[in-house]
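pipeline/complex-builder :: batch 7 item 3
reading input block
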Amino acid sequence: MRTVAVSFFAAISLLLTACTDEAFQSASSSSVAGKTQQEKQLEKQVKSLDQVSKDIIVNNTVQGALAGAVVGCGLGLLLGGDAGDCAAGAAAGGLIGGVGGNQVGRQAAAKNVEIVNSKQVLANLSNVSKQLSSVEANLRSVLASQNAELKSLRRQLDGGQLSQSAYNQRVNAIKSNRQVVSNELKRSEQNMDNTISELKTASSKGQPGLGGATNAAVSNKDRLARTRASINLL
Amino acid sequence: MTSDLLRFSRPFALVAVTAVAGCTGSTDPTTATLFDNIANLNSGEYDRQIANNKAQADAIIAQNKAAEQRNAQLAAQSNANKAEIDSLRRQIADVKAQGAKARAASASDPVKLQQVQALDNQLNAVERDVNSGASSAAISSELSRIKSAYRALSI
């Protein structure tokens, strides 16, 4: 009998625990209540921008120097692996290209690495710039609408047509929306900072052709900062 | 023994490599072989691709500059479209008509008249906002509430 009672108590406790979790989750999700569809859409957009701006540098950028050496000398290794490996490879390649010599092989490999390095990075940076344009368009509209609404809510509160709690709820939702957007933009800025730092490190280690990508990353970062600065956090 | 084998195999390897070289021809640097690399270098293909990358970097910077200029221009423009503003103006006219009824009904009651005056001031503020391009669901709600307040004073 005692065992049954303990089991029953344990089951009830578990059920109550589950209820508490659910209640807590409801309370958490109610923190976004009061936001409009457009505001929620904007939050999704800036979160997506954060994701897109995270992985700008692809692995082959930092491994580029090694890849270049393999491309330049791999054929030479196939031909014998002695001191003249790169020269032999390039000379064999020269049969097709009409030129010969170690220098040509190395030059061709270096240009190959330069193109591969910057191509994907630039595509990623371009994607960030395009997504930021969508964010800005929506942000401009949301901020203008919120500003008009804040004035309207204040008048209604002063005129006794709106309760203080209803006023607070909506104003807090607007503040929360602006804070979320600002935080996500800040994260994207930090992602760009990391990208710039990685590109500079790769360049200093001898990776060619990353100057344009570095400038584009700086441009993205500056634009992100100015977009964030346009948000009045209230 | 090993070096003899290498010396012996080298001419065959060269022939094999040269034959394979004839089968390639990729201009994509991620798949290009050494032969392709040299061919692309000699044909100027790689220089063209490097120039394309540089142009893309410049395009990103130009796109960012243009977007910022556009933002500055649009920030000064109205947020609402014409249809929204027209709808709000019709609503304002309707509320004003209700206000006139409230003023007439409150003419002999200074307290009520003062309340009507406060609502008139609020309505004027809404109208100023709408005329400057403001539009939001809140403004429409505010107009409904002003109308309800006028109606209560019209009795």
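note: The mean pLDDT of chain B is 85.
queue -> next item
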